[in-house]
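INFO batch 0412 | record 1 of 1 | parsing
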Amino acid sequence: MIFDWKTPQRGGRRSQWIRSWRLWKEYRDYFPLKLVKTHELSPKHNYIIASHPHGILAHSSFCHFATEASDFSKVFPGITPYTLTLGAFFWVPILREYVMSSGACSVSKASMDYLLTGEGRGNAVVVVVGGLAECRYGRPGFSKLVLKRRVGFVRMALQHGVALVPSYSFGENELYDQYIFPRGGWVRHFQVGFQRLVHVYPCAFYGRGFTENSWGLLPYRRPVTTIVGEPLPIPKIENPSQETVNKYHALYIKALRKLFDEHKTQYGISETQELEII
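INFO prediction complete | emitting tokens
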């Protein structure tokens, strides 16, 4: 591990064999999960795919971008996805090998710099922008994203001149329920305090058990469709000002809202429901 410590920041060590396991197709069909392409991605360019929402466990992002269950390499020929995840996964022996085998890399500036400059073309860096802070909103009926202050991915896109690709998974928030503790109670105070301390919200989620009407921690069998939208061209500016970052962040949010509004009624969301950005 000492000699291999920086591998997760240098493209990882993917295994096409593990990414192609039959297990992942069974996993896909359990829900089922579906990947929909709306525009082509040219293998002559690199991209940052911003995935929303995180939900509780980001099932759709893992299935589509960290495995070949949805035939990503056939849907987007010439594009190699790199899912960025918590660096802590790479601190544990054996686990780090399994995580890297999926094509995952550390979600760090050094990792993104390497993938967007040192690994040629046709790379798609996948970032679940809301992260674990978004877990608290991962419950049925919610379309709320933690995005207003998340501008780092836009800054990286500007520094490397790569397009931003919005992606939204309709149904991800329907896979678990959550128990909401009353305001003012000690459990709620603990949850809020824990989130402030480590930026992770310890939500009390639950789903189904091994039988259809039982209680457990398995996700509900509900369909999730991931729509990958149109690339948003971003100019290359090595040292963008905060004003420039905010400008393209606003353009990205506009593109994401457009993607959400164009498809929401097809997947059980009412015409009047808006995408909430916090």
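INFO post-check: Residues 171 and 268 are 9 Å apart (CA to CA).
INFO record closed
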